[in-house]
Amino acid sequence: MADLAPPLVTGVFALAGASAGALLSGLVSRASDKRRVKAEDDRRWLADRRLIYSTFLGVIESMLNDLERVSHLLGGESKQLAEEDKQALEAANDAYERRWANDLRPAFGQLRLIASLPVVELAERLAGFGGHVGGVQVPFFEGGMVQEYLRRMLRTRDVVSELLAEMRSELGLPPTEKRRSWAWDVEEAD
């Protein structure tokens, strides 16, 4: 029996070592898998945010550009709008409101699901206005409102710049310059 002791002890240690090695290998593998899954989730969230943010900004910029394309029809301080200009402005306003309902609101819904609170609050200032610019309805068809339209449009563009800066920060990108004041701001001209 004494002759069996060394091989028996060696066998027990070999079995225990193999079991411990397998257990340790499993634990290390599981920890590695968790890190890999977390890294994949982080990349997926970043990609989703980029897509949703760029979609929202693209819709906002496009809608504002559409408004700016017809702003020359608004006329001066005392100019009455021609019937043809009124019809063009009404058509632009209708198209704007359709885009708000069909494009902007759905993009805002997606953004709310994934964005941080500061991004959502700024986006809400832009998405919550319907046929408004900068949160205040633009009276397209009243004479003498060009200055007010420009003032509201510039404020809206400033909110877009703030939103872009907040989105870039959340995405880990370097900041861009915010447009806070304009050399030709109509508020200063009053």
Map the helices and strands.
Elements (H helix, E strand, L loop, with lengths): L4 H66 L12 H32 L2 H11 L4 E2 L2 E2 L8 H25 L15 H4 L1
Antiparallel strand pairs: 1-2
Helix pairs in contact: 1-2, 1-4, 2-3, 3-4
Descriptive report:
The structure is a single chain. The chain has 190 residues and is an all-alpha fold. It has one domain (43-189). 73% of the residues lie in helices and 2% in strands. The protein contains five helices and two strands. It has a two-stranded antiparallel ribbon. α1 runs antiparallel to α2. The longest helix has 66 residues, at 5-70.
Radius of gyration using CA atoms only: 30 Å
Count the strands? 2
Strand order within the widest beta sheet: 1-2
Mean pLDDT: 79
Please tell me the total number of domains.
1
Sheet-strand content, in percent, reads under 5%
Structural class: mainly alpha
Low-confidence stretches: 133-141
Level of helix content?
Answer: over 70%
List the helices and strands in order.
HHHEEHH
Give the oligomer, counting copies of the same chain as homo and different chains as hetero: single chain
Helix segment tally: 5
The gross shape turns out to be rod-shaped
The main pleated sheet reads as: 2 strands, antiparallel
Span between termini: 109 Å
Short description:
Helix content is 73%, strand content 2%. It is an all-alpha fold. Helix 1 runs antiparallel to helix 2 and helix 1 packs antiparallel against helix 4.
Features:
mainly alpha; 190 residues; 2% strand; 5 helices
